[in-house]
Design brief:
By secondary structure, the protein is an alpha/beta fold. The protein is about 45% helix and about 10% strand. The chain binds 5,10-methenyl-6,7,8-trihydrofolic acid and 3-methyl-2-oxobutanoic acid.
Amino acid sequence: MARSVPTGFVACPSLLVAQKAARQYQHRHHPSAAAGVFDGALRSYSTRPAEADFQHVRPKVTITTLRKLYKRKEPITVMTAHDFPTGTLVDKAGIEMTLVGDSLAMVALGYNSTTDITMDEMLHHCRAVARGTRSSFLVADMPFGSYETNPDQAVNNAVRMLKEGKAEAVKLEGGKEMAPTILRLTQVGIPVLGHIGLTPQRQASLGGFKVQGKTVAKAKAMIEDALALQKAGCYAIVLEAVPEQVATHITNILSIPTIGIGAGAGCSGQVLVQQDLLGLYGHVPRFCKTYRSLAEDIIGALREYSADVKSRAFPAEEHCYPMPQVELDKFMLLTEGYKNEQQQNVSAPQAAASAGERA
Ligand SMILES: Nc1nc(=O)c2c([nH]1)NC[C@@H]1CN(c3ccc(C(=O)N[C@@H](CCC(=O)O)C(=O)O)cc3)CN21
Ligand SMILES: CC(C)C(=O)C(=O)O
């Protein structure tokens, strides 16, 4: 039935939704080309029929979408990304929130700690992820040293994350001591994702990557932190490496979602580091489920490639570019000509020598 609808008409409501999402994407990433829905916007798809473009487009996830998921008690999916391809994969998988987490300092840049990464490095990665993100709600981590000095510093750098990094929200670590900063950010319209429990940027003072809130006193302090962050305006809070019962209790007393990582099944959503669940990074924390072991696959493929190059099995004929036969025939004649010339050059001194012999 939809087939009989003349072109130019929208056949079904989901297409309408998808078109709206596409326009929002376009507005965000290609504001200068915002006139037509797809004209010039999605360059890599410009040769495909419009219908194909809609297929993997889903409605844009906004703060409102997240709020609705939370109200419905539907777990919120969050996944990290650190560049264009990993961002695209997260978006295409239908993940609701993409986090450009500063763990990329370790898993993508090889630093020993997340504290090493700079604001400029985070912006560089965030922009790349944004280019691959259409629907997912994009959050950028504020790196260590970019927000602790005072609320002004935090606003300046959070504004950069939105303007230059193309993020939609920022995440920052810390409890009630960060409340005035979070209040300023949310008052100027920057959505803030809080982060308590194990706060990796403070690993030096925590004595390493250690589970937090294991004593009643620590759990009580964490509850107070969560409440202070909610009051300051966080739209959600990450709970990292916290006993399940503590995380579940915090989730139950809050009216904003909690996003758990090593915090059990009672949270309103879950986040993991992409490299960990794909088996691309060496050591994986206990709380991580490794869904694939891609590093083994990749090393296997690279070894096969290497062997093929050594044995000349690669490249094969199908990897080479043909030439029109007429041109090829002429080219063969040309190479013959060069060959003869070379032979003459080689034989010329010999000829001269034998001529001398004769004289
Ligand atoms: N690849 C990666 N994945 C992560 O999830 C991650 C990072 N990197 N880097 C920053 C933080 C650090 N993370 C961690 C790391 C280890 C534990 C952990 O399970 N700690 C154990 C042992 C710690 C120790 O012995 O020092 C614990 O029982 O506390 C928790 C969170 C989570 N974050
Ligand atoms: C693991 C998440 C919560 C994070 O902070 C990061 O990726 O840096």
